[in-house]
Specification:
The complex is a heterodimer of chains A (113) and B (115). By secondary structure, chain A is mainly beta. Chain A is built from no helices and eleven strands. The chains are: A mainly beta (113), B mainly beta (115). Chains A and B meet through strand 4 and strand 5 of A and strand 5, strand 6 and strand 10 of B.
């Protein structure tokens, strides 16, 4: 099994550009999450989804959008990139139940210049 | 509300000496607790988890953690550090029974291992 796959691994964007970070999981997990990781700050939740067609905001949703049309895919959209969005982004999934923990993707390192 | 506090942002040990990474939690419910490890420029890997079974939890690579409800702590230990243990470690809490299964992350402890 591939687990959670994120693409791209690295990207440099100019201010005002847009892009989509892709996340796919092949474990049939209902719950999927997007986090951003900044130095010394741990991981902050951007958006999450509890199943296909259902999404909700996390702690830091401003400047981002998501969709969940299938169980497998949970893309994260940046519409107008800003330097404050320079970060490492992680996608994660879990089958459900807080005791499972998450399976994480390998991350996307985004720089906005 | 749930939260975790990692008491040390940086820990440095010598190879072959014990490791102790400290974590305190706050939870209104009986929590599930996790330790994740992140090696440089890598994703996060689950080290171990506590889910209300045995209070002493054994994980991968010789790590273990003890759940102490009276102290609201879940410290991570290893008897003998190896150079490959150098990484960042995150203590994480989840409240069971919630509809969203969100995990709350600590701010991380960077472990350095000196030769």
């Amino acid at each position: 099994n591939a687990g959670v796959t994120q693409t791209p691994k690295f990207r440099i964007l100019k201010i005002g550009q847009s892009m989509t970070l892709q996340c796919t999981q092949d474990m049939n997990h209902n719950y999927m999450y997007w986090y951003r990781q900044d130095p010394g700050m741990g991981l902050k939740l951007i958006y999450y989804s509890v199943g296909a067609g259902i999404t909700d905001k996390g702690e830091v949703p401003n400047g981002y959008n998501v969709s969940r049309s299938t169980t497998e895919d949970f893309p994260l959209r940046l519409e107008l990139a800003a330097p404050s969005q320079t970060s490492v982004y992680f996608c994660a999934s879990t089958p459900g139940g807080g005791h499972y923990g998450y399976t994480f993707g390998s991350g996307t390192r985004l720089t906005v210049v | 509300a749930q939260s975790v506090t990692q008491l040390d942002s940086h820990v440095s040990v010598s190879e072959g000496t014990p490791v102790l990474l400290r974590c305190n939690y706050s939870s209104s419910y009986s929590p599930s607790l996790f330790w994740y490890v992140q090696h440089p420029n890598k994703g996060l890997q689950l080290l171990l988890k506590y889910t209300s079974a045995a209070t002493l939890v054994k994980g991968i690579n010789g790590f273990e953690a003890e759940f102490k409800k009276s102290e609201t702590s879940f410290h991570l230990t290893k008897p003998s550090a190896h150079m490959s243990d150098a990484a960042e470690y995150f203590c994480v809490v989840s409240a069971p029974g919630g509809a969203t299964n969100k995990l709350i992350f600590g701010t991380g402890t960077l472990l350095a291992v000196q030769p």
